[in-house]
Each structure stands twice: as structure tokens, then as C-alpha cells.
């Protein structure tokens, strides 16, 4: 993976950085790198995520999938980091034959639609929850289990569980002797893509999970005490510095259809890790070239409050655009769709620079298992580095708990002050 920060350093960039500010920043990167290295060595909570390429056991994952390895469909039941990593990996490198469906919301219309579409007798169900108590995940699991029973499918034959040491899911797995994998110790869900949490669907699909981990390992080996020697740290440091200069929004805009879900995964990683004590940069999910035709107007001509991260593989599949007799379109004839996409990328990058919108280019050699593993790892390292620079607790997410307590109270799981607060809402309806 490489990163080009040139369009952050040009005079036009507003906000922007200069060579002196990068040198000053590099001193802080050196300190942060040491803190991260120490945290990894001691396998401290959160920092342990950067050890996953070594600590994840692909054989244990394959072993757990043995009974369902020939499934035509995989159904992931999880939410947040317990679903986004798996979805990102199969969207980027999965095969088209095996469908991967993700139930990461509790919209009955969606769950009904998925259950109507898949053959549960040919589906591997992977239920993932680090805590084992997430209401959305458990509600969906209970619905899926009932649907399997109604279809005459023994759910215990087709269900794998990945969860913590305790909680309802672990108890269920023990009671029914389900194949059960452990969530990695000391790793928040949003940093667990390169582990049991994210790799089961890819393993069932026959993806090269060892290559994913090798890509992560390459990222681990790239970590260095200077941002000038480490793409991941350069990205984290530059994003933080731009935020401090007013770029409170980070538009993650991959130019590869297979990376659309990656932008969602990045959004959780960046928001849930850095959004604390009034700090944090707002991630926006976008897709190139598609969103040039929906959001680019704002990025180029709107407030100077954002940076744009452009991601692409240096090597793409090819698909020739046929010659055409249509006047004015001959320039498209005999070109290649990948060439068109890269021209759009280059044009958008230059357009943003021309308008003074700071933008960073991230490139991976190709969108394969190794390239994706490296990208996921480096974004995690960048986020952890940024967390050190912000001085926040990168690995917890206390702000999400209020809403959980309110929802539980509203659903009758016990009286909560939060649920009472919901009832006190000030209403002003406009019909
Ligand atoms: O894996 P669990 O415990 O079900 O949590 C799912 C998601 O919910 C959160 O805890 C936030 O509520 C995320 O950090 C996590 O990825």
C-alpha cells in the first residue's frame, strides 16, 4: 500500500499542511509509534488488534466451518464490527457463486426478504457478537432459528457462533454443542476483521484467508517510527492534522465497486474510535466514480471543512468498450472501463486540488486478498495512531450505551432512566 499526500501540501490546499508542520508532527508520530509498539508487545486491549495477522489461526476457522463448507449461502447475523468486516471482505474478494447475506439491522422487511430469498437448508448461519448480548443480533438470530425449524432444518447443523467467553450466545453454543469460535482477546469488534469475527464467510467461500493475513502482516512490518517511512502512520497523522486545521469531515471515496462496503467499515472504525470528548473527524462514505454525480459538487464547492480520501487498486480487471458509430462518443470506443474509471479518479483528484480541497491518494497493488488485508490493517494502524495524537481512548465506545439502555427499557427489559427520558420528549409535530 502506498499513500500520496501531495495534495495536502500544495499552497492551494485549505485546510492544508506544510513541510514544517509535517516535521513537527513526525516527532509526535515517533512517540505514538513507541506507545503502540509497547501496547502490542504487552497485548494490551486495543493494541492487540495490530497483532491479529500473527495471532489469528486460519485452521481453527476452517475447522469450525467443516460441516457447512459446501453451503451455497452464508448468512451473517451480527451488527457493527461483528458484521462489517465480514461484509467488506466478501464484497471485495468473495466469489459470486456463494451468496453472503448480512442481517445487521432489525428491519422486519429486510429480514423477511432475506429469509424468503435463501434456502436455509443450504445456508451457513454465522452468529457473531463479542458481548453475546446485542439485542439486534439476538433478535435476528431467534427469528432465523425459528425459520430454520419451520423449514424442517436442524439449525444446530448449520449454525456457527463467534462470541466472548460468557453470555447467552456462549451458553447456547455449549448447550447445543455448536461449532464455536472465540472473539480475539483484547480486540474491539471494529478492529477484528482479520480474525474469527471477519474471516468465517470468506473461509466458507474458499477465499485465501492466509493471504488476507499475510497482507495484514505486511502492514505490521511496515510500521515505523516516522510518518515518512510508514504509509499507515502518514495517513493517520495527516488526517488528524487536517482535522485540527478545520477538516472535520473525511470523505472515504474508494474507486472500486468491491470497496463500497470498505467505506462503511472505515466509517465505524474512524467514528467509533476517534469520536470522544468533543474530538473526532466525521467519516463520510462515498464511491467513485458514482458519487462524482451526487456529492462531488459539495466536496469541491462547499465549505472548506473536509478532506477526501481516494482509494484505488493500481491494477484492475479489464473490459473493452466497443467501437461506436454514435457521433461524439468515438473517444469511448476501444478504450477500457478500467481506464475510464482511472481517468475519473485522476480528474476528481485534480478537481479537488484545483479547488483547494485537501485530498489523499491511497493505492494498493490490486484488490486481492493480500491487498485487502494490507488495506484493512493499515487503516486500523492509521486510526490507532490518530487516536494517540487526539489523546482519546481509541478502543472503547461508552457513548453508545445510553441508547442501548433506553431501548432495553422501552422493550421491557427493566426500568431505565434513559427509557423515561424518551417518554419525556418535547413534541412539536408538523402535519
Ligand atoms: O459484537 P457485539 O458485542 O455484538 O457488538 C456489536 C457492535 O456494537 C458496538 O458494541 C456498539 O454498540 C460496537 O462497538 C460493536 O462492533
From TrEMBL:
Q: Which domain of life is it from?
A: Archaea
Q: Localized where?
A: Cytoplasm
Question: What InterPro entries does the database record attribute to this sequence?
Answer: G6P_Isomerase, Phosphoglucose_isomerase_CS, SIS_dom_sf, SIS_PGI_1, SIS_PGI_2
Class of this enzyme: isomerase
What reaction does this catalyse?
alpha-D-glucose 6-phosphate = beta-D-fructose 6-phosphate
**GO molecular function per UniProt:** carbohydrate derivative binding; glucose-6-phosphate isomerase activity; monosaccharide binding
Q: Does the record carry Iron-sulfur as a key word?
A: no
Q: Which CDD domains match?
A: SIS_PGI_1, SIS_PGI_2
| Database matches in SUPFAM superfamilies | SIS domain
BP terms from Gene Ontology:
gluconeogenesis; glucose 6-phosphate metabolic process; glycolytic process
Q: List, alphabetically, the Pfam families matched.
A: PGI
* Recorded GO CC terms: cytosol
- Entry's EC annotation: 5.3.1.9
Q: Does the UniProt entry include the keyword Cytoplasm? A: yes
Spell out the catalytic residues: 272, 293, 404
Q: In which pathway does it act?
A: Carbohydrate degradation; glycolysis; D-glyceraldehyde 3-phosphate and glycerone phosphate from D-glucose: step 2/4; Carbohydrate biosynthesis; gluconeogenesis
Tell me the keywords, alphabetical order.
Cytoplasm, Gluconeogenesis, Glycolysis, Isomerase
Q: According to its UniProt record, which protein family does this protein belong to? A: Belongs to the GPI family.
UniProt function note:
Catalyzes the reversible isomerization of glucose-6-phosphate to fructose-6-phosphate.
Q: What is this protein called?
A: Probable glucose-6-phosphate isomerase
Amino acid at each position: 500500500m502506498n499513500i500520496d499526500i501531495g495534495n495536502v501540501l500544495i499552497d492551494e490546499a485549505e485546510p492544508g499542511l506544510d513541510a514544517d508542520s509535517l516535521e513537527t508532527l513526525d516527532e509526535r508520530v515517533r512517540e505514538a509509534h513507541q506507545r503502540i509498539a509497547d501496547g502490542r508487545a504487552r497485548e494490551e486491549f486495543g493494541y492487540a488488534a495490530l497483532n491479529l495477522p500473527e495471532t489469528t489461526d486460519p485452521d481453527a476457522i476452517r475447522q469450525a466451518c467443516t460441516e457447512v463448507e459446501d453451503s451455497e449461502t452464508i448468512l451473517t447475523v451480527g451488527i457493527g464490527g461483528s458484521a462489517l468486516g465480514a461484509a467488506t471482505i466478501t464484497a471485495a474478494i468473495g466469489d459470486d457463486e456463494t451468496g453472503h447475506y448480512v442481517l445487521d439491522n432489525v428491519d422486519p422487511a429486510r429480514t423477511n426478504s432475506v429469509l424468503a430469498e435463501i434456502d436455509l437448508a443450504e445456508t451457513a448461519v454465522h452468529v457473531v457478537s463479542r458481548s453475546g448480548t446485542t439485542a439486534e443480533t439476538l433478535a435476528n438470530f431467534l427469528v432465523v432459528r425459528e425459520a430454520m425449524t419451520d423449514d424442517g432444518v436442524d439449525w444446530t447443523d448449520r449454525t456457527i457462533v463467534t462470541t466472548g467467553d460468557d453470555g447467552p450466545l456462549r451458553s447456547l453454543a455449549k448447550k447445543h454443542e455448536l461449532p464455536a469460535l472465540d472473539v480475539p482477546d483484547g480486540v474491539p469488534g471494529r478492529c477484528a476483521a482479520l480474525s474469527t469475527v471477519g474471516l468465517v464467510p470468506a473461509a466458507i467461500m474458499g477465499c485465501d484467508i492466509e493471504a488476507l493475513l499475510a497482507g495484514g502482516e505486511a502492514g505490521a512490518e511496515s510500521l515505523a517510527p516516522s510518518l515518512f517511512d510508514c504509509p499507515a502512520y502518514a495517513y493517520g497523522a495527516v488526517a488528524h492534522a487536517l482535522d485540527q486545521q478545520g477538516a472535520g469531515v473525511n470523505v472515504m471515496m474508494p474507486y472500486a465497486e468491491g470497496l463500497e462496503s470498505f467505506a462503511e467499515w472505515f466509517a465505524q472504525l474512524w467514528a467509533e474510535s476517534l469520536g470522544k470528548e468533543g474530538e473526532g473527524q466525521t467519516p463520510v462514505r462515498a464511491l467513485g466514480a458514482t458519487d462524482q454525480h451526487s456529492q462531488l459538487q459539495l466536496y469541491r464547492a462547499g465549505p472548506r471543512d473536509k478532506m477526501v480520501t481516494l482509494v484505488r487498486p493500481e491494477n484492475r480487471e479489464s473490459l473493452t468498450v466497443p467501437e461506436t458509430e454514435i457521433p461524439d462518443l468515438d473517444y469511448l470506443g476501444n478504450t477500457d472501463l478500467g481506464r475510464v474509471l482511472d481517468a475519473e479518479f485522476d480528474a476528481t483528484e485534480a478537481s479537488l486540488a484545483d479547488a483547494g480541497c485537501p485530498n489523499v491518494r491511497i493505492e494498493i497493488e490490486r484488490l486481492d486478498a493480500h491487498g485487502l488485508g494490507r488495506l484493512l490493517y493499515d487503516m486500523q494502524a492509521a486510526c490507532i495512531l490518530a487516536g494517540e495524537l487526539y489523546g482519546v481512548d481509541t478502543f472503547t465506545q461508552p457513548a453508545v450505551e445510553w441508547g442501548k439502555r433506553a431501548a432495553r427499557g422501552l422493550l421491557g427489559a427493566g426500568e431505565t432512566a434513559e427509557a423515561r427520558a424518551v417518554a419525556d420528549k418535547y413534541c412539536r409535530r408538523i402535519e
